[in-house]
Amino acid sequence: MSYVLSPEQMKQVDQRAITELGIPARVLMEIAGKGCADYLKENYPDYLKGRVAILHGTGNNSGDGFVIARWLKHFGVSVALICVQHGTFTPEAGENYEICRKLEIPTFLVDNEEGLGWLKDNLDICGMVIDTIFGIGFRGKLSTFHLSLFQMLGKLEAKMVAIDIPSGLNAQTGNGMSAFSADLTLAIHAPKTGMLIRHGKHQCGKLVTIPLSIPDSYNIDLNAALLIDENSHSYPNRYLDAHKGSYGHVAIIGGSLGYTGSVLMSAKAALRSGAGLVRLHSRMNLHEYYMHNPPEIMFIPLAEDEDTELPREDILNMMLDWADSIVVGPGLGVDSYAKTVLMAVLTHGKVPTVVDADAIRLISEDKKLIKELKRKNLILTPHWGEFCALAKLDMDTLHTDVPGYLQGFAAKTRAKVLLKSDTTIFCDGKRTMFNTTGNDGLATGGSGDVLAGIIASFAAQGMELGEAAINASYLMGKTAEYLATKRRTPSILPTDIIENLFMTDSL
User: Fold this and answer.
1) Is residue 155, in this structure, part of any structural domain at all?
2) For a designed S-S bond to 250, which of 111, 183, 275, 276 qualifies (C-beta 3.0 to 4.6 A apart)?
3) Comparing C-alpha atoms, which of 203, 180, 192, 187 is closest to residue 35?
4) Are 36 and 154 part of one and the same domain?
């Protein structure tokens, strides 16, 4: 299982290891630094053949760098320490720095812009530059010197490696577009929240975890978030003796004039991801359109009252009773017809329900509907703009702490939420799970409709709704990555995702 910690949680883990396990802080530093040095030796030997420069400051993150320097020297690597943030060492960092000096590892000080020319000339001959300047406690703004330093480093050909976190990146929020830009980040014990969101996902490059040999129970006790990856994802079980009833009934409700395709993509995605039976319910006036679509999808129009031309709730409720899971919202519209449908689903539906697209918009515009979100088996799937409307936030405010605002909204409303972006986050007020798979091929209208269909399919096949949502997101992202090996990402369509689900064993 892969965990994701906030900076505060990481501090608590360290403190428990020191006080309860009796592991001194200096020993933790040794384990971290030795683990990083071993990983670099094993995986990047060619970059260690030239000189390696370790940029440091005075904190414990720099202390990890000093341990790395000692071990790289032991491995026969030509290594130099360059201080770019002058100050007073922490006790553990200072002790390791003194050992490096006794081992005659070259040390230099460059802490102003006048020295950047000299530094660039010397770094040009390095195979690797290792960043240990600031750690996960960094919250401020970078100085002009450090901004210039990181810009200069971005022009070098050396392999850029960050230890624990790229310097200048906020470990909680992921803000820091001017932070050190790493090709590789070695996260100590666990990735930190900010590495997976906002600028963090891009500034970290490849993300690898270096263990500290601390029990998983410490993460569990903190209710740490989970990262869904190749080791922790899961899909519904399949059986040799199964029949169509074994994999659930999915009801997809939506569609309106001009927006007929969205609900159809949801239905196709539900089928392609394993649902046993799929019904598509839409407005009566769209009967001709949906009757000519894939025969595997059963189209049943919504019965309408002859006087009001609104859906008949008694018949709609009977349709809902057939389903093992429901999707409501894709292309639904925001008129009185759509609101009647949504109210019936929210108040009568008893099975796992995915609330997407126009249904989210209707909820964000009606305070009374917010109260219905506490239903145990309901999940909202907003993108950031839709979430801001739900939570009554502006986008700039959300950017200051995406996980924090999501967790606060989920706790307040008791809603399950899958917040969609390049990193997708699930939260229900108790659990938080991250998925980082995918690419810009998913930045196309209709991708959310496909995801909603997969979630409902997984739920109908027996997966718990939160697990269904985050694993559906993982599958969709991996499918987009697979397609990117076959074609350029701008040409990937949502229908391509549907047709290629489960097409490779790497999913």
Assistant:
1) yes
2) 275
3) 187
4) yes
Range of the domain at 177: 2-227
Closest CA to 140 of 173, 184, 118, 103: 173
Residue 55 burial (CB count, 10 A): 27
Q: What is the DSSP string of 425-436?
A: EEE-SS-EEEE-
Helix (H) or strand (E) holding 354: strand 353-355
Which of 152, 145, 184, 150 is CA-nearest to residue 165?
A: 184
**pLDDT at position 181, please?**
98
207 and 292 housed in the same domain: no
What is residue 261's three-state secondary structure? helix
The three-point CA angle 282-283-287 to 5° equals 85
Where are the alpha helices (H) located in 166-304, listed in sequence order?
A: 200-203, 216-221, 261-272, 287-290
Q: pLDDT band at residue 367, thresholds of 50, 70 and 90?
A: confident
- Across residues 451-467, what is the average pLDDT? 98
What is the per-residue pLDDT for 507?
A: 64
Q: Is the pLDDT of residue 197 over 90?
A: yes
The answer as to whether 234 is a domain residue is no
